[in-house]
Inverse folding.
């Protein structure tokens, strides 16, 4: 198998995750986090729609990592985010981390808002 080195330019990829934490661009971050091409910030979870709507015009889609298993995004959060024109895709946190890394490596305008795994 041939492996190809990915270039992330200024974006910080997910390097790993574990119970309650993420490793992003070499740094360990505790709790829920939003990772985007410009950096990262803490996230208050499903009740924190403002943190996601702030990315309107900066990214096209936000991958929401719902933890160990895929779960539905609460309607209030989905409605608030999609009203700004942003796309929202729910998936398990491991899938959201992988998907973010691939697409940001391709230069796509994406972000990931992820809840920690157990």
């Amino acid at each position: 198998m041939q492996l190809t080195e990915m270039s992330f330019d200024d974006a910080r990829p997910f390097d790993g995750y574990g119970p309650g934490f993420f490793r992003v661009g070499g740094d360990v971050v505790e709790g829920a986090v939003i990772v985007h091409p410009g950096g990262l910030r803490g996230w208050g979870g499903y009740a924190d729609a403002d943190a996601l709507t702030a990315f309107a015009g900066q990214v096209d889609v936000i991958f929401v990592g719902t933890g160990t298993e895929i779960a539905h995004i609460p309607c209030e959060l989905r409605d608030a985010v999609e009203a700004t024109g942003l796309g929202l895709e729910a998936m398990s946190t491991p899938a959201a981390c992988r998907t973010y890394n691939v697409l940001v490596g391709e230069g796509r305008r994406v972000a990931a808002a992820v809840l920690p795994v157990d």
